[in-house]
Design brief:
Blueprint: H1 3-33, H2 42-47, H3 52-70, H4 74-111, E1 122-124, E2 127-129, H5 131-140, E3 145-151, H6 162-173, E4 178-181, H7 183-189, E5 198-202, E6 205-206, H8 210-215, E7 225-230, H9 235-247, E8 252-256, H10 265-271, E9 280-283, H11 286-295, E10 298-309, E11 320-326, H12 334-339, E12 342-345, H13 357-371
Parallel strand pairs: 3-4, 7-8, 7-11, 8-9, 10-11, 10-12
Antiparallel strand pairs: 1-6, 2-5, 3-5
Helix pairs in contact: 5-6, 5-10, 9-10, 9-13
């Protein structure tokens, strides 16, 4: 080959080989420097021009780099272990606290009976309003009086009455705290429309046991005289009924637990202190309570407009009596009426067809009291 041919061939070979070598190996080399795909073997691996040792070195470098990324330093391992221990400690503490709460609830349920009996049950009556009700609360002394509120005397206030000062003095003489407050504040605290400038906060009334009411005689040794109410929901009516019953010598009252009003501030005010002297029992169902009373020898008399005239009915002379009064309008419920030993009515001489339940209770209670020995 001539020198010219060798020059052309060398130039062509140098141009093709050099360009190819630089062009295809230079870029991967730069990518390898920046952590690119040259980890698979670099330029030599791409072009196939590198040696086996170069390819092995490239592959080994990639593996080594990956291995270094997955390993942790001793400080990192120690921090991770500490964090794991703290999480485990918090979890254990939360579990112990939950178990302690659960055990406390179980102990509390075991200590408190689900259905208290006797004197442990209460009727309400924690707030007493009105001058007569508050006076009897203080005089009776059957439950603790926490405090008495009286309306402060204001200039040119014609509503301030003498009984307010008298009740304040009575409470102070019995070591009961007395709070003198503005009339507006007292009216805001009251639950009745006219508290008469005084209210008291006291311990709740205790509930009596039905069996005790059925066997306890009156103060003169006579058999029990009870009153049961069937579906009376108006607190004013119940309060007036209790007042009449106490005055007629009733020894106990039976109230149904459901669909009936219990002892509210309105009841205590309308009763004018009768709730302090009348034992009261709350029963789950009046028909079953009537049957229990009959087993104790109590004669049960229902008052209903369709019954026999009361003045003509025969009443037992030597047995206990329970007078059952129905709600105004509805009267006695069907099952209660069926359980009664007798059903009587009051004579009506006017145009109206019925009496208010409180008025009917007053008349009927005094008729029973008149016939008792």
């Amino acid at each position: 080959m001539s020198p010219a041919s060798r020059g052309k061939s060398g130039a062509k070979g140098a141009g093709k080989g050099g360009a190819k070598s630089v062009g295809k190996s230079g870029a991967p080399a730069r990518r390898a420097a920046t952590g690119g795909p040259s980890g698979r073997g670099g330029a030599a691996g791409r072009t196939g021009g590198g040696s086996a040792s170069s390819r092995a070195a490239g592959a080994g470098g990639a593996v080594g780099a990956g291995g270094r990324g997955k390993s942790r330093s001793p400080a990192a391992e120690k921090a991770l272990a500490a964090r794991t221990e703290r999480q485990r400690a918090r979890s254990d503490a939360g579990r112990r606290a939950a178990e302690a709460k659960r055990e406390a609830r179980v102990a509390q349920r075991a200590a408190a009976p689900t259905r208290p009996t006797g004197r442990e049950r209460t009727l309400g009556g924690e707030q007493v309003e009105g001058r007569h009700a508050v006076r009897e609360l203080l005089v009776a002394g059957r439950r603790r009086v926490k405090e008495v509120w009286v309306a402060a005397r204001e200039a040119d206030d014609p509503r301030h009455e003498e009984h307010v000062d008298d009740l304040a003095e009575l409470a102070q003489s019995m070591n009961v705290p007395v709070r003198e407050v503005a009339r507006r504040k007292l009216l805001g605290e009251a639950r009745t429309e006219a508290p008469q400038g005084v209210l008291a906060k006291a311990a709740p009334l205790d509930e009596a046991d039905l069996d005790t009411l059925a066997t306890a005689p009156d103060p003169w040794g006579r058999p029990p005289f009870l009153v049961a109410v069937d579906g009376v929901t108006d607190p004013g009516n119940l309060g007036a009924l209790l007042r009449s019953a106490e005055c007629a010598g009733v020894t106990g009252v039976v109230l149904p637990r459901h669909r009936a009003v219990h002892i509210t501030p309105t009841v205590t005010k309308a009763a004018a202190g009768a709730v302090e002297y009348l034992p009261m029992a709350i029963v789950g169902g009046l028909p079953s309570a009537i049957r229990d009373l009959q087993k104790q020898g109590i004669w049960v008399i229902g008052l209903d407009m369709d019954g026999e005239p009361m003045q003509q009915a025969a009443l037992p002379a030597d047995a206990g009596v329970c007078l059952v009064l129905g709600a105004e309008g509805k009267g006695l419920s069907r099952l209660v009426r069926q359980r009664c030993d007798a059903v009587v009515s009051l004579p009506l001489r006017g145009t109206l067809s019925s009496l208010n339940v409180a008025a009917a209770a007053a008349v009927a209670c005094y008729e029973v009291a008149r016939r008792r020995p």
